[in-house]
Amino acid sequence: MEIIISNTSGIPIYEQIKEEIKAKIITGELQEGELLPSIRALAKDLKCSVITMKNAYEELAKEGFVKTIPTKGFYVSKINKDLIKESILNKIESYLDKAVVIAKINKITKKEIKDIVDILYEEDNNE
Question: What's the topology of domain 13-76?
Fold first, then answer.
């Protein structure tokens, strides 16, 4: 499994790994019931610690993207569309919360923020 991580991104490595695997599940690159590489094997491939990999897999399990079968490994869970949407909405809310804090500190109005979002949506539709 190809996973790209960056040591300079400021995002913890386990989080980068978790998000990459999650994206592969959401897009169908990883299918329901598919066995994920062992923690030890993927840690070796990515040149990271076993603890980092364990954290990434445990987070995926907490979020319902994978399930663990003792002594057998981690498997891709059945995709729950509501779970995925809720996960994405939580992430968006987190980013927006940070943006609103920055906006308030700098006296940027709600209308200005809405205008920015509208422009970003328009740019995305024009591509």
Answer: Arc Repressor Mutant, subunit A (1.10.10)
